[in-house]
């Protein structure tokens, strides 16, 4: 579904490309990738957290956010487990709640 919507919007995907730098300019953003320079009006960076370095987690997203002056909170370890609460309203919709314990 996401890919279909992106194709409608003429979105270009660059997979398995190492991003060496990101810069903002008058037309949008310029990215230095491994072997090429790419420009775009809008940029979406989807990164995970730092909790799973074995799966490739890195501080890349945090560094880019800091580079552009976004407020980045310090990270800390937490013990997190899911607490499933199934409650049904009159329309019989149910949801799951998450609770994280520091």
TrEMBL record:
Residue ranges of domain RsdA/BaiN/AoA(So)-like Rossmann fold-like in the record: 1-75
Pfam families per record: HI0933_like
UniProt-listed InterPro entries: FAD/NAD-bd_sf, RsdA/BaiN/AoA(So)_Rossmann
Domain of life of the native organism: Bacteria
Protein name as catalogued: NAD(FAD)-utilizing dehydrogenases
């Amino acid at each position: 579904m996401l890919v279909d919507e992106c194709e409608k919007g003429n979105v270009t995907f660059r997979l398995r490309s190492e991003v060496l730098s990101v810069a903002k300019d008058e037309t949008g953003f310029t990215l230095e990738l491994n072997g090429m320079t790419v420009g775009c009006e809008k940029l979406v960076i989807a990164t995970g957290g730092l909790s799973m370095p074995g799966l490739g987690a890195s501080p890349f997203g945090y560094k880019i956010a800091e580079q552009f002056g976004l407020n980045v909170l310090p990270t800390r370890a937490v013990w997190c487990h899911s607490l499933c609460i199934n409650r049904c309203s009159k329309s019989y919709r149910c949801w799951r709640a998450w609770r994280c314990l520091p």
